[in-house]
Design a protein that fits this description.
Blueprint (H helix, E strand, L loop, with lengths): L1 E13 L10 E16 L8 E6 L4 E6 H7 L16 H12 L10 H15 L5 E7 L9 H15 L14 E2 L2 H19 L5 H8 L2 E5 L2 E5 L6 E6 L6 H14 L1 H23 L8 H12 L7 H13 L3 E6 L6 E4 L4
Parallel strand pairs: 3-5
Antiparallel strand pairs: 1-2, 1-11, 2-5, 2-7, 3-4, 6-11, 7-8, 9-10
Helix pairs in contact: 2-3, 3-4, 3-5, 4-5, 4-6, 5-6, 7-8, 8-9
Bound molecules: adenosine-5'-triphosphate, (R)-mevalonate and magnesium ion (MG).
The site of magnesium ion has 6 residues, from helix 4.
Length: 343
């Protein structure tokens, strides 16, 4: 039995970080994906282990099912159809499993991703032998939501064959989830994100699951479908960063300067709200595309309204400096699933 899933990355247009503290943020999916393929072993495979292959980093991990069964306390042996947070006790069990892997120092950032995988796998699928292969078009740790798309794609693949969701198993090609199932995928993905990010707002997994452009505040989202096809030029400076540490840093600044930060977050909230109303206003009835672009430019303080030729030149120049550019279509669909051989 095999299933594949793919979930998009994201860009946050306004409200990054402030959204963790209750401000509105506006985010869009981008058409760069994390893919998960899940293959359950059959008795004839004579396989009794859980394997995780991370293609980008050429790392492969394998746990005998008996080892995983022994690591988790009795309570997690029952499969959970409702998303559960990883308890301190289970986090310790997972940390021990990950430590045994001896992940090379340079790739230690992956430990949190592997931990999220172990939590989602054992919670949703229990102790079944399987091979999970992850590939991603997203650079890891660059602000494009690789962790969220990893968690959303994992949750989607892990839930696909369970009774918790109802999917047409005979469907050929990519298939979207229904509203209720999508909510479940998103909630499980959020539990994975918590393991990777510490204190995520949930915006990254939500935009990865639902796709399109969303306005998000304290877990509530407003969907917006872009009326014009938009593209973003995204540049990867290749300067490493860790979202969990950044989020914690903002939290500490909030504690040091609560009054000032309250103003900052309130200003960000207003910017995101204004951006939301611009994006939602029908074109060309209320605002022309140009007017919209000008307002977005002003709000985002950056203008990417460049012609194709200029973009090519900018890309060539940036790449000659050693940067990596992605031209990403934004606002596309969210997580999808495919049974058997997929396109
Ligand atoms: N394809 C993947 N394979 C394995 N682990 C992954 C993968 N994608 C993401 N991760 C996990 O997520 C971590 C990166 O998450 P982090 O939140 O720091 O950055 P990001 O999600 O790319 O950026 P941001 O959250 O700011 O948008 C990696 O170090 C790894 O643990
Ligand atoms: C930095 C942040 O706002 C987005 C990470 O891409 C964190 C979050 O919302 O969880
Ligand atoms: Mg992340």
């Amino acid at each position: 039995m095999e299933v594949k899933s793919r979930a998009p990355g994201k860009i946050i247009l306004t409200g990054e970080h402030a959204v963790v503290h209750g401000s509105t943020a506006v985010a869009s999916s981008i058409d760069l994906y994390t893919y998960v393929s899940l293959h359950f072993s059959t008795p004839s495979d004579n396989e009794d282990s859980l394997k995780l292959k991370l293609q980008e980093t050429a790392l492969e991990f394998s746990w005998p099912i008996t080892r995983i069964r022994a690591a988790f306390p009795e309570s997690t042996a029952q499969l959970s159809s409702t998303p559960n947070s990883c308890s301190v006790e289970n986090a310790k069990a997972i940390a021990a499993l990950v430590e045994e892997l001896n992940i090379p120092e340079a790739k230690l950032g992956l430990a949190s991703g592997v931990s999220a995988f172990l939590w989602l796998y054992s919670s949703i699928q229990g102790f079944k032998p399987a091979t999970v292969v992850v590939t991603s078009e997203l650079p890891l740790g660059s602000g494009l939501g690789s962790s969220a798309s990893f968690c959303v794609a994992l949750a989607a693949a892990l839930l696909a064959y369970t009774d918790s969701v109802s999917l047409d198993l005979k469907h050929q090609g990519w298939l979207s989830f229904g509203e209720k199932d999508l909510e479940l995928v998103n909630k499980w993905a959020f539990e994975g994100e918590k393991i990777i990010h510490g204190k995520p707002s949930g915006i990254d997994n939500t935009v990865s699951a639902y796709g399109n452009i969303i306005s998000f505040k304290s877990g509530n989202l407003t969907h917006m479908k872009s009326s014009v096809p938009l593209k973003m030029l995204i540049t990867n400076t290749k300067v490493g960063r860790n979202t969990k540490a950044l989020v914690a840093g903002v939290g500490e600044r909030m504690l040091r300067h609560p009054d000032i930060m309250a103003f900052v977050f309130s200003a960000v909230d207003s910017i995101s709200n204004e951006l939301t109303s611009i994006l939602k206003s029908p074109t060309p009835d209320e605002l022309s595309v140009t007017e919209k672009e000008e307002k977005i430019e002003e709000l985002m303080e950056m203008n990417q309204v460049l012609s194709g030729t200029v973009v090519d030149k900018v890309v060539a120049e940036l790449e000659s400096c050693g940067f990596q550019c992605f031209i990403a279509g934004i606002g596309g669909g969210g997580v999808e699933i495919s049974f058997g051989v997929s396109s």
